[in-house]
Write a structure and sequence with these properties.
Elements lengths: L7 H8 L3 E2 L4 E2 L6 E7 L2 E7 L8 H13 L6 E7 L6 H6 L1
Parallel strand pairs: 4-5
Antiparallel strand pairs: 1-2, 3-4
């Protein structure tokens, strides 16, 4: 693994570069990332979108995978999309 094992902090920094194009904020700032699990070169990200019908539903997981996979030491990225707890505009105001 070049550069040593990846850390959760590095993953969160990478996720901070993934923006929701409609809201112009990162998925981290929006509070859409619920869990990051790092085990060796494997990274798991659990996140939500606004709703199952969200227009970026089909592409967001790919954006997340690409951002995290660019980190040295990452060999595999799994993204799980969930819609529980439901996202609401109040979640942004608290972030």
């Amino acid at each position: 693994m070049a550069g040593g094992p990846v850390t959760e902090e590095q993953v969160m920094e990478a996720l901070g570069t993934v923006f929701d194009p409609e809201l112009g904020m990162s998925i981290v700032d929006l509070g859409l990332v619920y869990d990051v699990a790092v085990e060796g070169g494997s990274v798991g990200v659990t996140m939500t979108l606004t709703a199952p019908g969200c227009p970026i539903h089909d592409v967001m997981a790919g954006w997340v995978r690409a951002a995290v996979a660019a980190l040295p030491g990452v060999e595999r990225v799994e993204v799980q999309l969930t819609f529980e707890p439901p996202w609401t505009p109040d979640r942004i105001r608290r972030a």
